[in-house]
Automatic annotation (TrEMBL):
Protein name, per record: Cyclohexanone monooxygenase
Family: Belongs to the FAD-binding monooxygenase family.
Keyword NADP in record: yes
Keywords annotated in UniProt: FAD, Flavoprotein, Monooxygenase, NADP, Oxidoreductase
Matching SUPFAM superfamilies: FAD/NAD(P)-binding domain
Cofactor(s) the protein requires to work: FAD
Protein's UniProt keywords contain Flavoprotein: yes
Naturally occurring in which organism (per UniProt): Pseudonocardia ammonioxydans
InterPro entries in the cross-refs: FAD-binding_Monooxygenases, FAD/NAD-bd_sf
GO molecular function: oxidoreductase activity, acting on paired donors, with incorporation or reduction of molecular oxygen, NAD(P)H as one donor, and incorporation of one atom of oxygen
Length: 547
């Protein structure tokens, strides 16, 4: 039964980042739906609201990592850098919110605490931490993929007498590192970006590294007016090329095989991609790097050699050089002067793989062998409960009282990475088992929101009320995504969050679709063309769909 004080809407939207903002625009401004959106943050921005740590910067060129849905917006907005820093991306999202008048539909500082499907009414009920109850036929979740920081395995953080910061939940005030002994735990994309900046500011910086990473230069530069004009002259073609690329960027220089190339040819290609920056070495060098160990070894060795060239002390260089897992099986970080930071006399590297962190203490960090490291400031760059974490955190209950937690007990189960069987009318933007983080996010988000809005229209045009994947379609999709992952080297990484391996106890199943954005988009088009193949569309009281 619907809660007596509930506010009723056509759709509930979760999040006010790239996904939530576009969903509000698409449903409210373009489809005239009554929507309400929620975000735990105090304003728009999503990931770019929370991740304010020093050095936070996008690592897909913003000319590509931006909305494509409005020609005037993409023509008029000017990025000052090729890979802008967090404040500029946040300003862009604030501008989008103003330009399309989105804020009036968003409740900020409000977290969804439960989301429950009513089988009789075919409605979702959302409760918030403000004690409000909202009811809607449709839910679009833009809760994000990397929005729930992982709880570190070690204890004692509450005992630390100094200042503690988490990269994924950074305060709004300026953090003063001057003259302080700073310890940073974690060398993923966040830690690596932060190290380069904090090293310049801290009295002394100690980097606690467990698994060294294959970081490569981002290659940032101030926007070149001629390049910007050329790109804007035919933005539509640029977007089309992006959408037809595995990663959603219009790169076009990938060569078929590193193994088939000679040593000299490889060196030339690797040097070129390294110097041009971005994800070119990862995705625009050789097509077999993610699939073939021998091919992967060539680029892994190239990166190790480059690290040794950049780091003065050979022992430190060797500790920073990744070994024992293939390049690209953990998300490759992009850096600016990261390796050079270790040439500073006031920066130390500590190996916490051979000597793990045992606990945070009042004065700093204690390692397994009893070593005590003293800090004034501790920075946690220890990552996220990726992809499934944000959805599970909302306490979702679907048909017949079955929770999403139960449904995903062995890992995520979705159809197209967008919906789950038994959870009708709930669209998970860039959900688990979709290309999401392996596709340029704003474009992945637009594709998913467009698909969801079209599906809602399709259902309503038929005078129906409910859409959900069939269990069979879901099972096939899960099997397909697992099969794709097995054909790559991804399962070989011991700690990758792509596989759910970074969080102790998390089921280990691939969290991303590895067939590439173009194949995925073609599959979505086929599904629609075949009359929403794999989905059951029904009336209210739609247990009939499975009767
Ligand atoms: P991450 O890649 O998961 O890295 C977490 C780091 O913390 C790893 O080095 C990990 O070591 C370490 N760690 C975790 N628990 C530890 C423990 N108990 N003891 C010692 N070390 C521990 O997380 P992230 O750096 O926040 O990045 C997550 C994702 O966010 C990225 O992959 C990327 O997709 C996205 N991101 C993007 C950007 C960008 O676009 N510019 C920037 C930042 C982040 P192990 O590897 O040994 O587990």
């Amino acid at each position: 039964m619907v809660h007596p004080t509930a506010e009723s809407h056509d759709a509930i939207i979760i999040g006010a980042g790239f996904a939530g903002l576009y969903a509000v625009h698409a449903l409210r401004n373009q489809q005239a739906k009554d929507v309400i959106a929620f975000d735990a943050a105090g304003d728009v921005g999503g990931t770019w609201y929370w991740n304010r740590y020093p050095g936070a910067r996008v690592d897909i060129e913003s000319v590509h990592y931006s909305y494509s849905f409005d020609e005037d917006l993409q023509q008029e907005w000017h990025w000052t850098e090729r890979f802008p820093a967090q404040p500029e991306i946040l300003r862009y999202l604030e501008h989008v919110a103003d330009r399309f008048d989105l804020r009036r539909s968003i409740r900020f500082n409000t977290r969804i605490t439960s989301l429950t499907w009513d089988d009789d009414e075919s409605l979702w009920t959302a409760t918030t931490d403000a004690g409000e109850v909202h009811v809607a036929r449709w839910v679009i979740s833009g809760a994000g993929t990397l929005s729930v920081p992982k709880k570190p395995e070690f204890g004692g953080i509450e005992n630390f007498a100094g200042e503690t910061y988490t990269t994924g939940n950074w305060p709004h005030h300026e953090v003063d590192f001057a003259g302080k002994r700073v310890g940073i735990i974690g060398v993923g994309s966040s830690g690596i970006q932060a190290v380069s900046e904090i090293a310049k500011q801290a009295g002394h910086l100690t980097v606690l590294q467990r698994t060294p990473n294959y970081a490569t230069p981002i290659g940032n530069y101030a926007t070149d007016p001629a390049e910007e004009a050329a790109e804007k002259a035919d933005y539509a073609a640029l977007r089309e090329a992006s959408r037809n690329h595995f990663l959603g960027v219009p790169y076009s220089d990938v060569q078929p095989s590193a193994v088939a190339a000679t040593l000299d040819e490889r060196r030339e290609v690797f040097d070129d991609r390294w110097n041009r920056g971005g994800f070119r070495l990862f995705i625009d060098a050789y097509g077999d790097i993610l699939f073939d160990h021998e091919a992967n070894d060539t680029v892994a060795q190239y990166i190790r050699d480059r690290i040794h060239e950049r780091v003065d002390d050979p022992a430190t260089a060797e500790l920073l050089a990744p070994r024992g897992y293939p390049y690209g099986t953990k998300r490759p970080p992009l850096e600016t002067d990261y390796y050079e930071a270790f040439n500073r006399p006031d920066v130390d590297l500590v190996d916490v793989k051979s000597n793990p962190i045992e606990a945070v203490t009042e004065g700093g960090v204690r390692l397994a062998d009893g070593t005590e490291l003293a800090f004034d400031v501790l920075v946690l760059a220890t990552g996220f409960d990726a992809c499934t974490g944000p959805l599970l955190a909302m306490n979702v209950t679907g048909r017949r009282g079955r929770t999403l937690k139960e449904h995903w007990a062995d890992g995520p189960q979705t159809y197209l990475g967008l919906m789950a069987a038994g959870f009708p009318n709930l669209f998970m933007i860039t959900g688990p088992q979709s290309p999401s983080v392996l596709y340029n996010m704003p474009l992945a988000i637009e594709d998913h929101v467009d698909f969801s809005v079209a599906a809602i229209s399709h259902v309503e045009e038929q005078g129906r009320a409910v859409i959900e994947p069939t269990p069979e379609a879901e099972q096939e999709w899960v099997a397909h995504t697992n099969e794709l992952a097995q054909a790559t080297l991804l399962p070989d990484s011991p700690t990758s969050w792509y596989m759910g391996k970074n969080v102790p106890g998390k089921p280990q199943r691939v969290l991303v679709y590895l067939g590439g954005a173009p194949t995925y988009r073609a599959r979505c088009d086929e599904v629609v063309a075949a009359g929403y193949e794999g989905f059951a569309i029904s009336d209210r009281h739609s247990d009939r769909a499975f009767a």
